[in-house]
Design a protein that fits this description.
- The protein is an alpha+beta fold.
- It folds into 2 domains: about 70 residues; about 120 residues, OB fold (Dihydrolipoamide Acetyltransferase, E2P).
- It is built from 5 helices and 8 strands; from the N terminus they run ααββββαβββαβα.
- The strands form 2 sheets. It has a 5-stranded mixed beta barrel.
- It is elongated, with a radius of gyration of 28 Å.
- About 10% of the residues have low confidence.
- It comes from Nitrosopumilus zosterae.
Length: about 220
């Protein structure tokens, strides 16, 4: 009969080999996962950086801000290659309200323009936003299409826009948020009036928080 010490030694050796093999395999899997995640992150960053360059061409400060937000978003929300078959478009988080140039205390946010409805109403992140104080002709009326096309030229779908809700009209208008919209560094409320494709809604000058702004005063609010 084989010596008990020899048998015990063999068993111990088999167990040690199994344990070592398990940890070695797990280590290799972890290394592969880390490598895959790094590859996905690089692929996604390359895609998003190209989006920043296309969207903010000629605006170096805005482009750098976009790059910084991409990096921060990836840091906070790393991809998991085990759950992701393709690199999905990453939605950039909105800037904190404190970083935006907003007035009053009503909501203020930055989002993506998803539709140009007409000359004085657009959708930002799916929310309809009506320009405060500035109006355009109805889309089927004379000049309506021109006003819409003008706004679309300045602020095409996919642009980032800052929406500052009018503290004096927080109840909105027909389900639309009423506010001042800045898109690609252009105040759309003011630009619509400057282009003579829109007109001032004087009846709201006293109640709107923007009634005393220079662009509103320029066009007749006192």
């Amino acid at each position: 009969m084989m010596n008990k010490k020899i048998i015990f030694g063999i068993v111990l050796g088999v167990v040690a080999i199994a344990v070592f093999g398990h940890f070695a395999s797990e280590s290799n899997q972890n290394s592969a996962t880390d490598s895959d995640e790094a590859a996905w992150q690089l692929l996604q960053k390359t895609y998003l950086d190209s989006e920043c360059k296309e969207k903010y061409m000629g605006q170096p400060d805005a482009m750098q801000d976009c790059f910084d937000r991409v990096a921060e978003e990836q840091r906070l929300n790393p991809l998991n290659p085990e759950l992701t078959s393709t690199a999905p478009p990453l939605q950039l988080s909105a800037k904190p309200v404190s970083d935006l140039d907003c007035l009053g205390t009503a909501q203020c946010f930055i989002g993506t323009v998803t539709e140009i409805i007409d000359g004085d109403t657009i959708k930002v992140d799916g929310q309809s936003v009506r320009f405060a104080l500035s109006s355009a002709p109805e889309i089927k009326g004379y000049g309506g299409v021109d006003a819409r096309n003008f706004i679309e030229t300045i602020c095409p779908v996919g642009s980032m826009a800052i929406v500052d809700e009018d503290d004096g009209q927080i109840l909105g208008s027909y389900g639309r948020l009423v506010g001042m919209v800045t898109c690609n560094d252009v105040n759309l409320n003011s630009e619509l009036l400057d282009s003579n494709l829109g007109y001032m809604e004087f009846r709201f000058c006293d109640s709107s928080e923007f009634g005393g702004e220079s662009w509103a005063v320029k066009h007749g609010c006192e």
